[in-house]
Amino acid sequence: MAVVGTRQVSTSGAARARRLARELSQSGVVVVSGLALGVDTEALTAALEARGRTIAVIGTPIDKAYPAENKRLQELIYREHLLISQFPPGKKTYPSNFPERNKLMAAISDATVIVEASDTSGSLHQAAECLKLNRWLFIAKSVLEDRTLQWPSKFTHYPKTRPLNVTGDILGALSIREPSGTRMS
User: Fold this and answer.
1) H/E/C letters for each residue in 72-134?
2) CB atoms within 10 A of CB 53
3) Is 33 helix (H, G, I), strand (E, B) or coil?
4) How many CA atoms within 13 Å lie on the side-chain side of 129?
5) Distance (Å, whole) CA 77 – CA 35
6) Model's pTM, two decimal places?
7) Tens digit of pLDDT for each residue in 87-110?
């Protein structure tokens, strides 16, 4: 399950990302994210703290830590979990690497949840890829209810797009046993 969203995550969005990753981990779900600041960091860190399994998909070569603040987290995932890069060591990093990273995350995940994202978020590349690949796409209820956002309405009419109220919404769609069912709004 990929857990993605904004780099400038709100306090409530960070708490949602952590709770979701923890509950997914406790259910045996591998948490996938992009190792960016914000939602990605919160989700990966919470999954590790819950002793879950993680995959970090990065938009840089494997020998480069970006952002630098996540160097230790990247090294830990590299040593004890799975760190994936589709870019060869030493290759220059371009802004276009990150939408490519999001496509790869969608491809290796059974589903993606967007915890918090603006209308210009890179997470929307992943949402679009989920639709192309016929993967599940979950959008946090708080995002769907945010009247300042236009992007959610572009995805809600697809058959595999669902609002995310509780972790059980994901677990039920993926036929995984639910541990608790706390609200995700």
Assistant:
1) HHHHHHHHHCEEEECCCCCCCCCCCHHHHHHHHHHHHCCEEEECCCCCCCCHHHHHHHHHHCC
2) 16
3) strand
4) 22
5) 10
6) 0.92
7) 999 999 999 999 999 999 999 999
